[in-house]
Structures are given as structure tokens and as C-alpha cells.
Amino acid sequence: MPHPSQTDPAAHPDNRIGAEPPRTRAWQDGKVVAEGFPVVELSEHLRRGEVVWVDVCAPAEHELRVLAGELNLDPVAVEDAVSPRERAKLDRYHDYFFLNLYVPHVDDGALSLHEISAFVTERAVVTIRQDRALGIDALIERWDDGPELDRPELAGNTVAVLLYGLLDLVVDRQLDAAQAFDDEADELEGLLFDENASLRGVQQRSFRFRKDLARLRRITLPMREVLNTLLRRDMGFVPQALIPYYQDVYDHTLRASEWTDSLRELITNVMDSRIAMQGNQLNEVMKKVTSWAAVIAVPTAVTGFYGQNVPYPGHDTHWGFLVSTTIIALCSVGLYVAFKKRNWL
Asked: Residues annotated as region Disordered (predicted)?
């Protein structure tokens, strides 16, 4: 069953924008008064004094012309909204601002980033997702289940409440990703002293972990600047009653960025420890191999110096040559197997 906020493509065939039908919703005094209406009716709801939310998924630049015309959006901001891999940021325009954020997801130790942009005006919030993997239902549930819209002192600040829900969701997902990487770091630490662990496998996981952690850090660090800008008094966007909520998101942002920094130091220490352990292991192997070589070198030197070459069973015969060759091959294979079992080769 489609969500009520999703517009009906059969009833409004000209309303399709992007990879799926847009989602729309309107609030009056903090209460939902309409949803699932076509985007062309956006200006009508705004004239009624309602707060409007529109969500589109993976639109082309020309498909946003209706929204750009309704909200008087700058072409540069529209281009940023549809361009993938824009950095996380907040840009201020004349009567609105543009946000670009990333929602991380960690699956089996692998990090994927889902980009979401938002235009925030005085009475409208437009979210633009770059792919379908970022489900918007979680954001709607947060708005519906959160007590903020039901509080009378916040009913007139619906846009700020909606943006708070979006930022809170994004930062919570970033904290979840940091927690997943923390668990991955614990596993890597456990493998560090596991003699049965594959050295190549541990190295591959470590390098992938470090690369993904750097990507996570690139999207968490700018969130501090975003929240700082929104909380500035000259912005006048966050009302006094909502400052504790935004401050809480800011604290979570600090925690996420500090967590990623500590994990970077941890994985660096793990990799350095692994290299040091490899060096120590190599020294042990060289010590043992050198000792055996010294033991074998003494009789070899004595017999070679005196030229001792006595007849042995099968001397000057074909079968004697085959026997000696077989002994050499078996001893070589035996030494190879013994060294391999001890991880000397």
C-alpha cells in the first residue's frame, strides 16, 4: 500500500517527477490538513497560509522547473540539488537556504552513502533524494510520532520542526554508522592476535575500513558547521523553544565526528601493530632458519674441506641415482610443508 503522502500517478499523470511519484503534505497550526496532492497545487496551499512539504526522488534538472517556479529557486541551487556527490553544506540565499546532507548505511562492514538535499523557505520544505535506497518513510514516522508538532508553542514554527526531524534522522544514522564501525574495529582487534586469521584478509578489511571511515568523516564534519549556522542568532530561523532540540542534534554531531576521529586513530594503531607483529614474526623465522643453516653448515664445511666422497649403496648405478634424487625431493617437500605450517613461507 502506498503511503497517503504519495501522489496518485493515475489521477495526476502529469505530476510524476523523478524515479517515483512525489510525496506532498500540508500542515496548518501543526496539524496535517492535506497530503498526496499534486505539485502544481503547491502555491494554492501556500496562499492559504499552510506549511508544505514536497519530496521527489532522483529528478532531472528540467523536472524541477515547476518547483523552482513556485518557490522562486535559484538555478544554481537547483543544479546542486540534482548533481550527485555534492559536499555536505548549507548555502544561504535571499529568502531560503539550501542543504545538502548524506545518510550513511553500513551493511556487512561496507559503507554506502545516500545523498539528500533540501530547500527550506519560510513555509515550505522540499527534499530531493538521489536514489530510492534512502526510504523517506522513516522521516515521516519521525514527524508523526514526535511530540514537537503537538506542542502549542511550536505550532507556528512547523518548518523549523520539520527541519529538526530531518537533521535528527541524518545525525542518528551517522551515529549508527559510527557504532557499526566501532564493532568492526573490535573484530579487527580480535583478529590481530588470532593465529588462524588470514593475513591478507585482515589487511583487506583494515584498508577498506580505513577508506570507509574517511568517507564517513567527510560527511560528519560539515554537520557541525551546518548546525552552528542554523543556531546563530542573526539567522533567526530556530525559535527559542526549539533551541534545545537543535542543540541536542549539535551534540550528537560532535559525538559522531569525535567518534570517527577516535576510530581513525584506533585503526591506525591496529595496522601499525600488525606491521610490528609481522616484523617480529619475520625475525623469529630468520633466527630459526639461521640456526638450522648453521647446524647443517658445519658437517658440510668439514666434508667439503676434506673432500670426503665415500661410496654409498647404489654408487655408480642407475637405481642409486633415482634413490638419491627421490630423497632430495622428499626432504625438500618435507621442509616446504614444515615451513608453510609455521607460516615461515
From this structure: 1-23
Question: Which CATH superfamily is 13-276 part of?
Answer: CorA soluble domain-like (3.30.460.20)
CB 65 within 8 A of CB 81: no
Place of cell 554506502: 112
Q: Which of 50, 75, 54, 57 is nearest to 65 (CA)?
A: 75
pLDDT tens digits, 222-274: 999 999 999 988 788 888 888 899 999 999 999 999 998 888 888 877 777 77
Residue 130: phi, psi to the nearest 5?
A: -90, -15
Give the DSSP per-residue string, 12-26.
Answer: -GGG--BTS--EEEE
pTM of the predicted model, to two decimals? 0.79
- Cα 336 from Cα 334, distance rounded (Å): 5
Other Cβ atoms closer than 10 A to 215 = 16
Pairing mode, if any, of strands 110-120 and 124-129? Answer: antiparallel
Burial of 54 (0-12, 13-18, 19+ CB in 10 A): buried
